[in-house]
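pinning this so it doesn't scroll away 📌
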Amino acid sequence: RARMPAHNNVLPNQHFHKRWMDRVKTWFNQPARKHRRRMARKAKAEKMAPRPTGGLLRPVVRPPTQRYNMKVRKGRGFTFEELKAAGISKRVARSVGIAVDHRRKNHSVESLQENKQRLLAYKSKLIIFKGKGNLNGLEAATDEDANMATQVKGDALPITKPVQELQFRAVQSSDDSVFHKLRVIRSDTRLEGLRLKRKREKEEAAK
């Protein structure tokens, strides 16, 4: 017989027969899945060799809004203006590992120049095998360079985030109290209307 609780409390209704052993979830296949993912990455890298395992080359962009525009990240693809400035055809770019985005526009000269230099750096390290067809200005590599080609693990040109240097200055001791200044400004703002009213009444009384 259960004892009734004191005052306005919950009635005791314990459940002690839930068969918890039927609800236990195991994760014994975790090591096998880890091995399977590793083998899949290895097979994918061998299939796409000698291209970089990180995929296509992406531009450097800044996220929208003031909250995030101080960061840099990879964008979807290079604009037509950036490809033209680097001397790469938009039809050839996709075939040599460069992502192209026909929607994105350059709204600043800085972003155009930054991604242009990124394309030129990639172009200087690019090794194109013979038999790629019309390259529109890009030259195929020699047999010696082709034999020396190695696969890059990860992104071809990783994005380095800018680090702002901190500037320090000596602490200047002053007798002025910032708290007192703030209180004076607050008081002047609060009493501005009353002081104008008194000044106006004084001028009318003097007439």
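📌 and the second one:
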Amino acid sequence: LLTDDQRLIPVVIERCIEHLEFRGLNAAGIYRKSPTVENIDALYRAFEQALIKNFLRQLPEPLLTFSLYNEFLKAADMICVSRRISKLHSLVELLPNANLYIFDRLIIHLVRVATLKGNMMTTNGLAVIFAPNLMRSRNSDREFEFRNTSKKTM
């Protein structure tokens, strides 16, 4: 994932997030809409947006690791919100350092995306888009994973 021992976040993730935050946070549907041929800037942003999602999707093991998958799903089922949040925090702390750094950076970025009204991306919309790229079971069936997205986004 990393380019050298000093880097905590892969260059591709950091550069894409930096560029999006500098130029693309106000784009309507920043992660949802496909680019138009007429607008090369939109195409450039879309490439970078897809790059982040594809990078996460192509990881041999998801950012929220196989070993914690079932625990994350159990935590999402917890009825008490404060317990659910506490459990999710404790699970995130169990991630390998590289995964934790990337996850933290990605969450900071997605919060910035969600707080800008002009891009029409809500936290729920971002969760639906990113959850399947952040976690999956070892015996992943993409159709099942997609149907299970609502549980992952809690």
